């Protein structure tokens, strides 16, 4: 079961939020909530709030918070507000205030796919694709001249 929490229109540039995501994506959500205040970045606070929201959503679905892991953390771009600074000689200097959208997806530890079985499926799929390509391939002019396919 996937647990999704989103926060939209955060008044912070996405590139600043994306700096914090690699620090927490490989640890549990409970541990991430404890670590984020000590990172020393302003971007940690909105991420912490979204993770807490996702944990609360999991509790609402009667899931244990200790069994949760991150499936994905997305930081997307939101709209940009156009603003102006007063410039020299009465000119306006434009700048943009960037916004972000955060999406956190959690899942239980029991849902983590087995990497060995996944690679077997991929290899089997590739063999089928190769067989189809061979069947669909058209004979070349050289093979026609020689009399073979």
Automatic annotation (TrEMBL):
GO terms for cellular component: cytosolic large ribosomal subunit. It holds the Pfam family Ribosomal_L22. Part of the 50S ribosomal subunit. GO terms for molecular function: rRNA binding; structural constituent of ribosome. Belongs to the universal ribosomal protein uL22 family. One of its GO terms (biological process) is translation. Keywords: Ribonucleoprotein, Ribosomal protein, RNA-binding, rRNA-binding. This protein binds specifically to 23S rRNA; its binding is stimulated by other ribosomal proteins, e.g., L4, L17, and L20. It is important during the early stages of 50S assembly. It makes multiple contacts with different domains of the 23S rRNA in the assembled 50S subunit and ribosome. The globular domain of the protein is located near the polypeptide exit tunnel on the outside of the subunit, while an extended beta-hairpin is found that lines the wall of the exit tunnel in the center of the 70S ribosome. It comes from the Bacteria. This is Large ribosomal subunit protein uL22. Gene3D superfamilies: Ribosomal protein L22/L17 (3.90.470.10).
